[in-house]
Design a protein that fits this description.
Blueprint (H helix, E strand, L loop, with lengths): L9 H7 L16 H14 L7 H16 L5 H17 L20
Length: about 110
């Protein structure tokens, strides 16, 4: 196995210096999910370097941070960031994707 370097982790560099979004410093440390969502929305809409829609870019960055912080993220802050996802969906007028309601599913016919 390759030994770990003692320098900063690559994920921290991505969060701080993303090529797609210019993030507000400390955005993921805020205690208010709405403020996090609004900051991400603003960053995504102002970016001219993103490759996806503003919503996708903002949500991707939020998910990236949650996933990379992993077990080092306090449960309280993780809950705030999870609520920020819902706020972000609300800001972009998106609904949460989930399973289809009963009766609306189509079954595949193999014959």
């Amino acid at each position: 196995m390759k030994p770990r370097s003692r320098g900063r982790k690559w994920s921290a560099a991505v969060t701080q210096g993303s090529d797609a979004l210019d993030l507000e410093p400390g955005v993921f440390k805020k205690a208010n999910p709405r403020q996090i969502a609004l900051s991400l929305k603003h960053s995504a809409q102002q970016s001219t370097r993103r490759k996806a829609s503003p919503f996708q870019s903002a949500m991707s960055m939020l998910n990236f941070y949650i996933n990379r912080a992993g077990s080092g993220l306090p449960a309280r802050q993780k809950a705030v960031l999870q609520r920020a996802k819902d706020e972000l969906r609300r800001e972009f007028h998106r609904s949460r994707k989930g399973p289809s309601p009963p009766g609306r599913r189509r079954s595949l016919r193999l014959s």
